[in-house]
Amino acid sequence: MSNYCNTSKVTIIRTTKSVVQNIITKKHYAKKWTESKHIYAIYWDEGESEFFEDRKLKLIGAILYGHPVGFRVVKSISDELENGDVLEIRRLWIEDGYGKNIESYVISQTLKMVKKYSPQTKIVISFADPSVNHKGIIYRACNFYYQGENPSSIGSNKYQYRYPNSKVWMSTRAMKNKVGTSGHMGILNKIPDIEYRKSLVKYRYLYFLCNRKEKKRLIKSLKYPLVSYD
């Protein structure tokens, strides 16, 4: 298969949780579902028919957009934004082998769909997690604006945890779901032999869906500056 994706074979369909939940919970590194407002299934055309109904479409991935997880996220962007103004890319997983640019193609196409179905959305925010070797190259390819290390998290004392003999590092949120507390000492008291490490700060990206005039105004109101890609 070519290094680049044959985008004519990619079909993206707005869908429901039941269609893509299994692929996300089994394949995405987080291994769990997340609440989402806009859910898109990604299919690959394996058929030869010119008629859509006769094509053999293989489900190869999904992308989920939802409201930002942290209640402070929206205001950490700008005080002029309200909760309904911002969506976050909550999950993205696509099977390997369909071209190195397929992720950026899917993001660019679904941003257009989000703009259509959610005209009130002004900004889409996303994070790249260095703890799983993500830096955000696909967001750069889609012309997202970059704010470097997530400015609202710098200086915070957050940890990740790993059970003995496990390869999976879990967030404090995940630990709270398991042991009933997200406090560092509380977790250590309940599981004395658990491994822990300080969380790496994620990289933060912004994409503006609003018109040029509003985009210019919002950029001026940002609490943290945009920075050049490093």
Describe the protein:
It is a single chain. The chain has a 7-stranded mixed β-sheet, sandwiched between helices. A two-stranded antiparallel ribbon has the order 7-8. Helix 3 links the parallel strand 4 (86-94) and strand 5. The longest helix is centred in the middle third of the chain and has 16 residues, at 102-117. The protein has helices at 17-27, 73-77, 102-117, 137-141, 172-179, 184-190, 212-221, and strands at residues 10-14, 38-45, 57-66, 86-94, 123-128, 145-149, 159-162, 195-198, 203-208. The model has no long low-confidence stretch (mean pLDDT 91). It has 230 residues and is α+β, with helices and mostly antiparallel strands. It is globular, with a radius of gyration of 19 Å.
Spell out the key features of this protein.
single chain, 7 helices, alpha+beta, 230 residues, globular
Q: Helix segment count?
A: 7
Q: How far apart are the termini?
A: 31 Å
Which ranges are low-confidence, i.e. pLDDT below 50, for 5 or more consecutive residues?
Answer: none
Give a count of the beta strands, DSSP E runs of length 2 or more. Answer: 9
Strand arrangement, largest sheet?
Answer: 1-2-3-4-5-9-6
Mean pLDDT: 91
Quick synopsis:
This protein has helices at residues 17-27, 73-77, 102-117, 137-141, 172-179, 184-190, 212-221; strands spanning 10-14, 38-45, 57-66, 86-94, 123-128, 145-149, 159-162, 195-198, 203-208. The protein is an alpha+beta fold. The strands form 2 sheets. The protein has a 7-stranded mixed sheet, sandwiched between helices. A two-stranded antiparallel sheet has the order 7-8.
